[in-house]
Protein: Synapsin-3
Organism: Champsocephalus gunnari
Amino acid sequence: MTNMLASSLRVNGWNRSFKPDFVLIRQHAYSMVPGEDFRNLVIGLHFGGVPSSNSLFSIYNFCSKPWVFSQMIKLYHALGPEKFPLNEQTFYPNHAQMVRASDITLHPHNTHSSP
């Protein structure tokens, strides 16, 4: 049994289906911008067995930046800081935990120089 990907286009009042022979993906599959979530298309291409320039698995995994960073941490531990330097980052499971009043420290700066 062959998986078939059928995408519908409405052309002149008719629905048209097609299966691409190969895809070249040149943009992120997911963005925080409203209306720019194409993960369903990546899943459909993968389900249909459509070959692509990049692994559809890797394209889908790159939809989550914390997921990518966690993979980079594994490389950092395997190769060491000399071969794979990595800037430290902190993971927060949601935005509410990022900002707490007790965590904010104000550092007043004197912008006027005194003689």
